[in-house]
Specification:
Blueprint: H1 2-8, H2 18-47, H3 54-61, H4 63-73, H5 76-98, H6 108-115, H7 124-148, H8 157-228, H9 232-257, E1 263-265, H10 266-281, E2 287-292, E3 297-299, H11 300-320, E4 328-336, E5 341-347, H12 363-374, E6 378-383, E7 387-393
Parallel strand pairs: 2-4
Antiparallel strand pairs: 1-3, 4-5, 5-7, 6-7
Length: 399
């Protein structure tokens, strides 16, 4: 059946988008069906002595080469209008010649149904209105012409019976072939889209892998510098840079190792991030960590800024809120309702006002505020048995 595939691919260009390729193939197949049914009708009517309708059927038979040529040398938009012009004119002329007894009007139904499949959504309304108006105008001419006997060919009773049988069989054949063509093309389009999605996933995986490797290289260089650094102030700055880069690198690592390309389990991510921060800055024996995210998955566009915010909050709490005696309690909660996502953080430290390192001009606060602006989020700090932070934002990617 390679020749059928070859017909369907005529006029398809490398620059065409998937939906343009689909429309072109459908149009080629519909033109082929039109030519095939016209050929069958020519043979049938000629054998039964009804030769006056052969010229009109010859127009229908010419539909395939005309449409293929237009697709090749112009584009599918011109071909769509040409197809409907040819097919509806042939139906109109045959209906007027064969009269009401020929019942040729039934061919309008598959033609009208096919209209919805040959118009892309970007210009579907415009094309449907234009082509439907043309069909409606031709139907009016058809009705008036039948009433006044325009172009009517005198037929004997036996010939009228043959015409009815031919019309029934051909309309059924056309409908079946249209359905097969649509099903075959939809199946082909689904396979092409599946292939494109797999290729995109592979490319994204490769991208995540390269980003992860590059960030790991940066982390390695920072760690080498940390090992050789004797200045405590510089060392603290390097550690902060290290933790911020790690929070972003961890997102890409999770995405690369997970099944989803652009989403990650936020609870697993937070747990791993917090463990790394505690190991870097604090005494894990004196830190109680509670994380609640209910298994929510976060898109990379949201996960990275949220991860950086949590990184700043946890880091500052470990550095400036750990009590002299007793344990530091940290709680991170991520939830959502019908309209927004909510990130909460709390510790049992002295609160934000008593922490000299976390005044409004500190880098950590600047980073948090900048990330909240990036997320278009509303956020608030409170002192209530320690520090409380709440951020609310709308996340279109959240599941």
């Amino acid at each position: 059946m390679n020749w059928i595939t070859s017909i369907g691919n005529q006029g398809i260009r490398k620059s065409y988008l998937p939906w343009e390729k689909s429309i072109t193939r459908k149009l080629n197949y519909f033109a082929f069906i039109c030519s095939l049914s016209s050929c069958i009708a020519i043979i049938s009517y000629t054998l039964n002595g009804i030769t006056l309708v052969v010229p009109e059927l010859a127009i229908g038979f010419a539909a395939l080469p005309i449409i293929l040529a237009i697709n090749k040398y112009l584009n599918y938009n011109y071909a769509v209008y040409s197809f409907y012009f040819i097919s509806t004119v042939v139906i109109l002329l045959l209906s007027l010649q064969l009269g009401e007894g020929g019942e040729v009007y039934v061919f309008y139904f598959p033609i009208i149904i096919s209209l919805l499949t040959l118009c892309h959504k970007s210009d579907k309304i415009k094309n449907v209105i234009i082509i439907s108006s043309i069909i409606f105008f031709e139907i009016i001419i058809n009705v008036i012409g039948l009433e006044h006997g325009w172009l009517l060919v005198p037929l004997q009773a036996a010939q009228i019976h043959i015409v009815k049988i031919n019309t029934l069989l051909l309309s059924t054949l056309v409908t079946i072939l249209f359905s097969i063509a649509l099903a075959a093309q939809n199946n082909l389009q689904e396979k092409e889209l599946t292939k494109m999605i797999k290729e995109k996933d592979t490319l994204l995986k490769e991208l995540q892998h390269r980003v992860k490797n590059n960030m790991s290289l940066i982390l390695g260089l920072l760690n080498l510098k940390l090992d050789k650094c004797n200045n405590e102030q510089a060392k603290a700055v390097l550690e902060e840079c290290n933790s911020r880069i790690y929070s972003m690198a961890l997102v890409h690592s999770k995405l690369y190792s997970g099944k989803l390309i652009q989403e990650l389990n936020f609870q697993e991510y937070l747990q791993e991030l917090a463990r790394e921060l505690i190991q870097t800055y604090g005494n894990k024996e004196r830190i109680n960590l509670q994380i609640e995210a209910d298994g929510h998955k976060l898109h990379i566009d949201t996960a990275i800024p949220c991860g950086l915010i949590v990184n700043e909050l946890v880091t500052n709490s470990i550095k400036y809120a750990t009590p002299a005696t007793g344990n530091l309690d940290l709680k991170v909660k991520f939830s959502k309702n019908d309209s927004e996502s909510i990130l909460n953080f709390a510790d049992n430290g002295p609160g934000i006002r008593s922490r000299g390192e976390r005044h409004s001009e500190s880098l950590g606060m600047v980073i948090i505020e900048s990330l909240c602006i990036q997320l278009e989020a509303k956020f608030e700090f409170k002192n209530r048995n320690g520090l409380e932070f709440e951020m609310r934002f709308k996340d279109a990617h959240l599941n």
